[in-house]
Amino acid sequence: MNIVHFGSNGWHARFDEALTSQALYSVALTLARIYEAEKARSTILVGYDTRSQSRMLAYVVAATMADQGFYVRVLNYAVTTPMISFMMSDSSYALGIMLSGADYAGTYGGVVLRARGGGLVAANIWSQLDGLVEQAIPDETQQLITALTNHEIALEDLDHTSNAPRQDVRSLYKKEILTFVKNMASHGLYRPLTVVLDYMHGATSDIAAELFEALGCKVITTRQDTRDDFGGVHPCPIKPWTKHSYEVLRSVHADVAVIYDGDGMRFSLIDNEAQQVPLHLIAPCILDFLVRFCGEHGRVVTTQASSVRICRLAERLNCETSIVPVGYARIADELTEGDVLLASDEYAGICVPGFGIWRDGILASLLVIRYLQMRNEPLHTIIAKMSSDLGNMDYIRKDLRLDPAKMQTFSTMLPGVNPASIAQKTPCAVSHADGLRLAFDDGSWIMLRPSRTQPTVRIYAEAPNLAERNELLRAAYALAQSKL
Asked: Where are the alpha helices (DSSP H) in 21-103?
């Protein structure tokens, strides 16, 4: 018996364990009941990433919704999660359902939901999915699933809302995103760049290169083919999975390498000296571009677990900063106010609300490239200067996994923890808004936060140098273990 564990960011699990056809049938059946009032006037949009099992599960979801009387549009090619959000700007769609394992290994899959406008669905929707128990698929639904899988029924037959041909989602997305990026800096000198695009066998492979070429870049692509096992790596753009990107960049003497995750929400950069650009300096680059080169202004939203450097730059650029608890749902709440220029989570998931209210790795990477084109300096130099100007900082996150009983003990006791000193440092600010965060006069800080989805304590530390960071991390670990 498998149980669904849904949160604001969806549900991810192994294909051979919890994420079964029966579990997805249960999710789709519940969604059909929730969206019953939309049945006659709207369409359900279903997409999937490059994993073959994601496509098969998309057929399960589509067949279930169609069997319940819904019009369903299933895309017949792999897409990114931001593309589903982009399409949800069309009011004819009531709900977007994306089957994707994101940056997990190939053995994992997942399902995320997008509401009208492209944002997260309301908590009262995903909370009804959390805790569902998988149930058997009825014969009539299974027959439709089989017919879709064997191409005996065309995907188009599930959607009768329009007799006109549907516009290709990829073409529409590329057109709109390129127009937005070019309009953000419509004048200036754009120096040519050689860019390596590493798709990590993910869903960005049919989209990004054409956009970079349209900006005048010479593009070298790698890991573009579709593989269920992602070539033995996790489609997560961090070490050690980015080793291949370094090798390609060196071999072609490129100016920068851009590495995307499996579903296009995040990316990372390798500079011209084959050094990994710190994730926490990507958002400052984009903010600097938007304000100084594009003349934009607005509020910057980030989380309590993000580097202090984004706030330091926002202050210098006279941008108001809002710091929220961890979780994109908290960022999404801020976006509704309409005055946000840039939002960034602690893992470099970046949202530019001028284009859309979702994290979009392709958009953010194009803005970084435009920034580089307008500066007559290599990326390595730009990052070194920015790091120096904002203060050199070392950032780390480690997880402390606990058994459920100890996790409950820790979560119960943490709100009452208020140490007078730690690692021979006296906190200048203490926050219990999201676990425990202690800040110090030199800009360093530590944070202990119980995970909302796993029996794990997330422990963060940032300090001006590696030795101080590690000392704070050790002290935070000791503090966590002392409360068990």
From this structure: 21-34, 52-67, 81-87
- Contacting residues for 300 by C-beta, under 8 A, at least 6 apart: 287, 310, 311, 314, 319, 320, 321, 322, 340, 341, 342, 343, 344
Residue-level pLDDT at 196: 98
- The pLDDT > 90 percentage for the chain reads 80
Q: How many CB atoms lie within 10 A of CB 151?
A: 8
With 0-12 CB in 10 A as exposed, 13-18 as middle and 19+ as buried, what is 109?
buried
Strand partners, 111: 11, 99
| Average of per-residue pLDDT values in the chain | 93
The order of strands in the sheet holding 267-270 is 218-222, 194-198, 256-260, 267-270
- At 292-332, the pLDDT tens digits run 999 999 999 999 999 999 999 999 999 999 999 998 999 99
Tell me: pLDDT of 95 over 80. Answer: yes
Question: Bridge-partner residues for 202, per DSSP?
Answer: none
Q: 250-285 as b/e, with b when 16 or more CB fall inside 10 Å?
A: eeeebbbbbbbbbbbbbbbbbbbeeebbbbbbbbbb
Q: What is the pTM of this model?
A: 0.94
Q: Where are the beta strands (DSSP E) in 361-425?
A: 394-401
Burial label, 152 (beta-carbon count in 10 A; 0-12, 13-18, 19+) = exposed
Work out the number of other CB atoms within 10 angstroms of the CB of residue 212: 21
- Beta carbons of 195 and 217 less than 8 angstroms apart: yes
The model's confidence at residue 164, banded by pLDDT at 50, 70 and 90, is: low
Contact, 401 vs 388, CB < 8 A? no
Dihedral pair phi/psi, residue 250, rounded to 5°: -65, -40
Peptide bond between residue 240 and the one before it cis (omega within 30 degrees of 0):
yes
Residues making up the chain, counted from first to last: 484
Q: How far is CA 55 from CA 14, 145, 326, 435, in A?
A: 15, 11, 31, 38
CA neighbours closer than 13 Å in the CB half-sphere of residue 479: 28
Q: State both tokens at 170.
A: 């990829």
Convert the pLDDT of each residue in 182-237 to its tens digit: 998 777 778 899 999 999 999 999 899 999 999 999 999 999 998 888 999 999 99
Count of other CB atoms within 10 angstroms of residue 243: 9
Q: At what angle do helices 379-390 and 309-316 cross, to 10 degrees?
A: 90
Per-residue pLDDT, averaged over 404-429, amounts to 90
What is the Cα–Cα distance from 264 to 207, expressed in whole angstroms? 10
| Residue 484 scores a pLDDT above 90 | no
3-state DSSP helix/strand/coil % of the chain, to nearest 5: 40, 20, 40
Q: What one-character DSSP code corresponds to residue 42?
A: -
Cα–Cα distance between 42 and 396 in angstroms, integer? 45
